[in-house]
Amino acid sequence: MLKVIVIILSCLQLDDDLSVGVEAFSRIAPAVPIIANVIICENLFQVLTISTGGRLHFSVYDKYLNGLERVIKKMKSQSESSLLSAVRSSRGEKILEVDGTVTTQPVLEHVGISTWPGRLILTDHALYFEALRVVSYDKPKRYDLSDDLKQIVKPELTGPWGTRLFDKAVLYKSISLSEPVVIEFPELRGHTRRDYWLAIIQEILYVHRFINKFHITGIEKDDALSKAVLGILRVQAVQEISSSNSVCFKSLLMFNLCDQLPGGDLILETLANMSSSRELDRGNYAVAGGGMHSISALAMVSNLGFVFGSSSSNPSEAGLLVGEVAVGEMSLLEKAVKESRDNYKKVVLAQETVDGVKVDGIDTNLAVMKELLLPVTEVGKWLLSLVYWDDPLKSLLFCLFFTFIIFRGWLGYAFAFMLLFFAIFMVLTRFCNQGRPVDEIKIIAPPPMNTMEQLLAVQNAVSQVEQHIQDGNIVLLKFRALLLSIFPQASEKFAVTLLFTALILAFLPTKYMLLLIFLETFTRYSPPRKASTERWMRRLREWWFSIPAAPVVLEREKEDKKRK
């Protein structure tokens, strides 16, 4: 079918200056699943038009089609070869990509402290690595991508002697392995090979997660696998015709993209529901609502000469002929993708504002945080002034007001009123400031520090953190001493206090308990109680300082001198 498309377009002798926009491409191209997909069509258009100013010229499109034809022939020759034939035959796995066969582009496998060069093979169900021996390859290791083994596939850093220096590797981890496997793709500049392999490995992993999550079976499962395979073919074609190394491969693979887009789970859910509805309507080879529909991915792959899983060599026998694009109307999948892309644009705009307000330097960030928390600190200072009775009249009125609210059981209403106040404030601000520019927060930047001052600031910060950790450890050790009765007199007082507290919690109603805590807190420094409070706080500190800490013994782990 692809060859027919290329021949027809070449026979028309179209002008090279003929071009289309993103809307036309996004509507027409997904009708042929090998060319584009509803989910990734806009991203594919951006890649193809990166040098033509947002218009897709026929000459670029023709190169793209020719690239697709070459990668299809390459994949067919790999799948029909004897490579891994004994291993692949049980599941009918098809080879999607091979690397490590050229000495200038090796692939290294790191397991623990051992490293082996070899050949890496990706199929539609698993990842295989064949370690290179003297004259041949070792027995392939299989890293499954189809079963639910809690797999983790992510980028990883590698380097000599276990160091983490070079960002050129992929980590594979699952519950079936005792330790993770790191596969490195050495290259002089950048990490394009690693990014490409990471994207296509994750695409196979994500499509199987989609299949397992929605319990997709039969030819619908084969159709989902076909979508992932066509996506990998498109990425390979773009690699052939693109001279840029900045192509984001994940944005051209539908299951990778759904993992990143906001609402991507809804897109996959819509896709699964459409698959279920097609399965119900397969008996009469029709779809709900009738009309003309695009060809399915499975039928497209079958026409190209591939057979996946249990699907028939003749797609009409399986009954899956239609895809997700309908002529003259938007399908449910297209609507879900459009909504997700609209949300993604909002996320991008929001992220741009986030990136714009980021500043460098600890002192500068502290200055920004101090300014942002200024209202909170002011409210805190006001409450502390009420607690310490700096203005007795205001403190008395505040105490009486909240005592009445707690006594009547209106505390929940008070919090509801506070939330209502914030909601009304936000609505009024929206209407009053509509159309006006947003007021910027003005921060007084701290004076710049030289290198020595920055080192001293870091040292002081580390010392303060260390002091806080030490104080925390002392508190924990003293509580341990109280529980173990290392100082019996203090432990007896502490036990009696816990007993009275337990009785209060057990028999006193919650309303009165809250009232008691509030009155104790807010009348502690009132004029009648201030002297007694200071005296009791002094006795409490003296009691706390008299408690010894539980003993601690530090033991250093003995190093094994016979370590190999």
Give the SSE map:
Elements (H helix, E strand, L loop, with lengths): L1 H10 L7 E2 L1 H7 L12 H8 L7 E2 H23 L4 H4 L6 E5 L7 E5 L2 E10 L2 E6 L9 E4 L7 E7 L7 E8 L7 E4 L7 H22 L4 H24 L12 H7 L3 H17 L12 E3 L1 H7 L11 H4 L3 E5 L5 H26 L4 H11 L1 H14 L4 H16 L3 H22 L18 H33 L4 H20 L2 H13 L7 H16 L19
Antiparallel strand pairs: 1-2, 3-5, 4-5, 4-10, 5-6, 6-7, 8-9, 9-10, 11-12
Concise account of the structure shown:
The chain is α+β, with helices and mostly antiparallel strands. The protein is 54% helix and 11% strand.
- How many beta-strand segments? 12
Report on the biggest sheet: 8 strands, antiparallel
Multimeric organization: single chain
Q: Could you tell me the strand content as a percent range?
A: 5-15%
Radius of gyration: 34 Å
What is the overall number of helices? 20
Structural class: alpha+beta
Distance between the termini: 60 Å
Which residues sit in consecutive blocks of at least 5 with pLDDT less than 50? Answer: 6-14, 285-289, 560-564
Helical content, roughly?
40-55%
Mean pLDDT: 85
